Amino acid sequence: MRVADLSIWMENLPSFQGLKPNSKRNYRQWLKIAVDNLGMGTPIRAVGYLEADRLYLKLSTEKSSHQAVSVCRLCSVLWAQLIRYGHSKVNPFSRMRLPTPSSRQQLWTQEQVYKFSSVASKRGLSSLGLLAEMCYVFCQRPIDIRLMTREAYQGSTLEFDQIKTGVHMSLWLMPSWRHRISSVLRSHNHNSLVICELTNQPYNKNNYNVLAFDIKREARIPIELQLRDLRRTGLTEAANHDATDSELMSMGGHKRKESLRPYRLNTRQQAENGMRKRFGLGK
To answer: Which CATH superfamily is domain 110-276 in?
Structure first.
């Protein structure tokens, strides 16, 4: 068996077939990087500890530490399966002591969120402003808002399954949001909640990013801020206001408390909250 055979082999693994579409996409991308760098014609048994170290060093130097870690971790999982099926005797990617990639810490301010929405509306793209505000207010990923159907609106709640994790969400709607969402749904007859005014269709992954970039530039919002950061912003704000772990997990759809780490950022607000509690100063 050669490195070039890994792609088809991985696709046929029962464990791979049970993954979510987003995870499959990531695994295919990381494996292609590994195959290209290890050499398609290289025999599996010829990939040793030196080759594993070289792969990590090359990717971390030429690309990023995050990519290097992701690729090598996938290789470690695959080589464990290769051993199990008798295609290899050692796992050169195990015990590499890979660093834990730092998570994104970019946060929007509330002023930036509503400035983005305002500029989007002036550009005739109020739907994109709605998408951004919903990511922020309801602490959800852009893909879940982009593809949300009108059936999700149940009057006082939003009921839907997260696309990445499959977790069922039941999000309480403030009265103002009940009115806003019902008004949006009355304004069109599409099955999706958020409809792009330019295409009369739901936003796709490309056009919402391109349009968001233009709006951020016009609104003078830092380009490095992305719509996916709005979820982190909302949950971090909730953490700053003393939301419990259970509340944060319910808001974000997290299954494990360890997943809350990116939202427990060392913000100035948290430092102030700690000092106020310490000296009994209240809010």
So the answer is: Intergrase catalytic core (1.10.443.10)
